[in-house]
Specification:
The longest helix is centred in the middle third of the chain and has 14 residues. The protein is 10% helix and 38% strand. By secondary structure, the chain is mainly β. The protein starts with 7 loop residues before the first strand and ends with a strand. It is elongated. Pfam families: Transthyretin. One of its GO terms (biological process) is purine nucleobase metabolic process. Catalyzes the hydrolysis of 5-hydroxyisourate (HIU) to 2-oxo-4-hydroxy-4-carboxy-5-ureidoimidazoline (OHCU). It catalyses: 5-hydroxyisourate + H2O = 5-hydroxy-2-oxo-4-ureido-2,5-dihydro-1H-imidazole-5-carboxylate + H(+).
């Protein structure tokens, strides 16, 4: 919930290689109050079955920059193990699954202003990602 003195943040992850939400990805939230200020770890959450983090911590008053750290390596390792166990068809999204994930972590840093809400979706696959300011 935002007030006139703070910004608020939400996020969700879509696994574009599977065309569905990415469940169980750990997300850490950090903030700072100025470009030269130290980052303050605020806590984190994990994505639910809909790929959303519904309980990220509130931002402190004076926050100017936010960082979301997504721990995606374990998500893809678990997904690969499940695919191999289920003996899924050899679709293009599954052919390179033995190589691991190229980006084990994704860190997104963005500027905020008080009173605004920032929804930052992560579109993810084993070899790339994209982010944008959503609504």
């Amino acid at each position: 919930m935002s007030t006139s003195t703070t910004a608020s943040v939400s996020t969700h992850i879509l696994d574009t290689s599977a065309g569905r939400p990415a469940e169980g990805v750990a997300v850490q939230l950090s903030a700072r109050s100025g470009r030269s200020a130290d980052w303050q770890a605020l806590g984190g959450s994990a994505t639910d079955a809909d790929g959303r983090c519904k309980d990220l911590p509130a931002l402190p008053e004076g926050t100017t920059h936010v960082r979301l750290d997504f721990a995606v390596e374990s998500y893809f390792e678990e997904k690969t193990a499940n695919q191999q166990a289920d003996a899924l068809q050899d679709a293009p999204a599954n052919r390179d699954s033995g190589r691991g994930v190229f980006f084990p972590e994704v860190a997104i840093t963005f500027a905020v202003v008080p009173g605004e809400h920032y929804h930052v979706p992560l579109l993810l696959n084993p070899f790339g990602y994209s982010v944008y300011r959503g609504s």
